Amino acid sequence: MTTTPAPHPLDNPGHSSLNGPHARFAERHGRVARYPVDVSPWLALPDDAGPEDWADLAALAGPGGELALAAIDPALPPGWEATFSIPGVQMTGEAVQGAHDEEAVRLGPADVPEMLDLVARTRPGPFLDRTHELGTYLGIRREGVLVAMAGERLHPPGWTEISAVCTDPAHRGQGLARRLVDAVAAGIRDRGEIPCLHGSASNTGAIRLYEQMGFVLRRTTVFRGVRAPATVPGATRTPTTTG
Q1: Cα 77 from Cα 147, distance rounded (Å)
Q2: How confident is the model at residue 236 (pLDDT cuts 50, 70, 90)?
Q3: Do the beta carbons of residue 109 and residue 132 sit within 8 Å?
Q4: Alpha carbons 206 and 145: distance in angstroms, whole number
Q5: Contacting residues for 219 by C-beta, under 8 A, at least 6 apart
Q6: pLDDT over threshold 60, residue 242
Q7: What is the 3-state secondary structure (H, E, C) of the chain?
Q8: d(CA 132, CA 153)
Q9: How far apart are CA 65 and CA 21, in angstroms?
């Protein structure tokens, strides 16, 4: 008898995360879920999403609401609009062991204003008021000022995504990003998990750095923004929040 192999957790990382280690964050409507809007823009859409799932997703978004699809590219049903499409890469670090760094400090709620300021100046990708709650975030300071950081975002079973890798422009060229990625990867390895990364395909400098560190390309992908219809017919379930 032929059996169908189970989907890989990284094939649909938002779905794997919100139905796995990050289930406590999930705001659910039927089979779809999303992170709270101040945590992450990514959501969980089933691989076999049908009209009822899209109606539930529209109910989560609200009329005309925008959502972000993490590394999946489903066909949009009538009434939905694509708002952006960014070619991307998904990289895995099976051979990356990482290295703890004595200068890297753990960042928490008190550091959020500085983290948001650094993100605003460097634009590493989505980082919101509560994104730091998704996992460990590490930073390096110079004269008390946060000048570089990296941390954990999506968490499919057995994997953790390294994200928000950024360095103040005045402190680039010192290897800070590489040190922090190594330090975050070391913490992931300490849990018995494997680090992974997503990035824009156009960011060739970062991709080259990750390849030098031992990350390998698993697949090319796309990050998409979508807008729900102005009216939301057919969704009758009551939204629920886990956790």
Answers
A1: 43
A2: very low
A3: yes
A4: 24
A5: 89, 90
A6: no
A7: CCCCCCCCCCCCHHHHHHCCCCHHHCEEECCEEECCCCCCCEEECCCCCCHHHHHHHHHHHCCCCEEEECCCCCCCCCCCEEEEEEEEEEEECCCCCCCCCCCCEECCHHHHHHHHHHHHHHCCCCCCCCHHHHCCEEEEEECCEEEEEEEECCCCCCEEEEEEEEECHHHCCCCHHHHHHHHHHHHHHHCCCEEEEEEECCCHHHHHHHHHHCCEEEEEEEEEEEECCCCCCCCCCCCEECC
A8: 8
A9: 26
Comparing CA positions, the residue from 137, 186, 193 lying closest to residue 166 is 137
For residue 85, give the amino acid letter. Answer: S
pLDDT digits (tens, 9 = 90+) for 90-112: 999 999 999 999 999 999 999 99
